[in-house]
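Before the break, one more example. Copy the sequence into your notebook; we will annotate it together after we see the structure.
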Amino acid sequence: MAKLRDVVDKIEIRAAKRATKCRRNGSHKIARGDLRVIVTPSGPAARDYGYCADCGAAILEAAQQRIAAHLGKLQSASTLTPIQEVQAEPAEEEEELPEAGSPRTKPEPHTQ
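Here is what the structure looks like once it is written out:
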């Protein structure tokens, strides 16, 4: 089975090693030792972006709502999948196979 792809950027919550500012709002100060949200986007030139606890919580809540909306769309669309639609149609009668040991009949030649 294929590995599931992680579409969420690398997110960590860790204590600030030094006093800094929030990436989202420069007036929010992050003191040394305060918890902050660190987001590292994917890519070759990825760098860490630090957010204060309040902004980080708002960002994560917004992301959670977006993911829930996408998941809801997928779940509502997959209530009747194409496979289930095919199975829901009345099945045609299948030909019975000859039992083991019984003589097989030759198929009739196909005429046009």
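The beta strands are 10-15, 20-21, 29-30, 35-40, 49-51. Residues 53-77 form the longest helix (25 residues). Try to locate both features in your own notes.
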